[in-house]
Amino acid sequence: MTAPRAWFGQPRGLTILFLTNMWEQFSYYGMRALLVYYMTKQLLMAQGTASLVYGTYTACAYFTPIVGGVIADRLLGKRRAIIIGGSIMAAGHFMMTFEPLFYPALATIALGNGLFLPSLPSQIDDLYEPGDPRVGWAYNVYYVGVNIGGFLAPLVCGTLGELYGWHWGFGAAGIGMVAGLCIYLWGQRYLPPQARYPVVERTGPRPAVRFPRETLVLLAAIGLSVTVFRAAYEQVGNTVALWADTGVDRRLGAGAIPMTWFQALNPLLVMVMTPPLLAMWRRRAERGSVERPARKMALGATIAAGAYLLLALLAWFGGQAHWLWLALFFALLTLGELYILPTGLGLFARLAPEGLGATTVAAWYLATFAGSLSAGLVGTLWSRIGHAPYFLLLAGLAGSAGLMLRALDPRERRVAGGTDR
């Protein structure tokens, strides 16, 4: 008997995964929206130290899933990995409400995320029979959950933290994680049984799978380019957040816009910009004009460089910039993000040799890990050089990534095949 469909003709299990992920993202981005402010204002950390801690934490949040995915596949099974990982993350968020537990709390959240993050989306394919065409856009529906949670998090957790106390915001993030776990447990009957058990190794010798050398070189070069790009991109929750606090006129009517609200702009703009961008790319594809992935990523990095160049100009003229300029910055940065980051992930998945799909996608997370760590190191320069030169440096990093990606276009064409249109 076919399971009832609940949302846009998709299995009900997709709705469960969607809502679980939405609340997990709410908790992660809610805590992250407060983190650098909490360290500099409450814990009175030096700015350079706070930026380094922020970068190290976000980097670890992308590194632990590489190990956690193996543990989930081989030992725990996806269901138990999500329950254990989500419970650990919730505990970490609640630990953030106690100042002496700050560092253990960050480590706890990162460890729980390692089990949770790779196990949830990997259940999507299990909802469908082989060849089901609906799986093609199931990931688009799922990705909306990331951005809804990321959009709501600064508005709820950020507002509570700014107006009523940092620990209220961290506590709200923990409640969000618990809500996601409850939804996941409640919806077990709609999820595939494959999610409950670890993978059993087959007996007998397994054929060796190797990366073609040219593919390996291409992916390594793209990963390096993305690492350079993320050193600039990841400043949104770090030094850009600090600038929003002191360098932006946030007055609106008789009040002021909370500084954490600006971090809700990125996920909101992702939701707003994605449909017209997809429609534009589809029209171009129908006309036979398809832009190569490396060129598209290079364009995205260049747009992001323009966003940081805008901040450099605003800082150069001095004084507080109107908040609309910051909104324009986020619009440009988000547009660049949509060109480079989803395209890069898709390219890594598409070029993966058979039998090495998870390993290849894990390599993408390695680039994210290295980029986040680099962003923390770059953030330590915020207090050492002027704001205008600092933003100019970020523009240079993003622009350099664009040049590197553009130079990879011929190699990408040879490896992936096809012609330049």
Automatic annotation (TrEMBL):
Q: What is its main location?
A: membrane
Would you identify the family this protein belongs to, as annotated?
Answer: Belongs to the major facilitator superfamily. Proton-dependent oligopeptide transporter (POT/PTR) (TC 2.A.17) family.
InterPro entries xref list: Dipep/tripep_permease, MFS_trans_sf, MFS_Transporters, POT_fam, PTR2_symporter_CS
Pfam families assigned: PTR2 (PF00854)
Q: Name one GO molecular function term.
A: peptide transmembrane transporter activity
Question: What keywords are assigned to this protein?
Answer: Cell membrane, Membrane, Peptide transport, Protein transport, Transmembrane, Transmembrane helix, Transport
SUPFAM superfamilies, per the entry: MFS general substrate transporter (SSF103473)
Q: Which organism is it from?
A: Sphingomonas gellani
Starting at the broadest rank, the lineage of the source organism is: Bacteria, Pseudomonadati, Pseudomonadota, Alphaproteobacteria, Sphingomonadales
Where in or outside the cell it occurs: the entry states: Cell membrane; Membrane
Record's bilayer topology term: Multi-pass membrane protein
GO CC annotations, alphabetized: plasma membrane
User: PANTHER family, alphabetically?
Assistant: PROTON-DEPENDENT OLIGOPEPTIDE FAMILY TRANSPORT PROTEIN, RESISTANCE PROTEIN MDTM, PUTATIVE-RELATED-RELATED
Q: What is this protein called?
A: Proton-dependent oligopeptide transporter, POT family
Q: Which Gene3D superfamilies match?
A: MFS general substrate transporter like domains
- Gene Ontology biological process terms in this record: oligopeptide transport
TM spans (from-to): 12-31, 51-72, 79-96, 102-120, 141-161, 167-187, 216-233, 253-278, 298-317, 323-349, 361-382, 388-408
What domain of life does the native source organism fall in? Bacteria
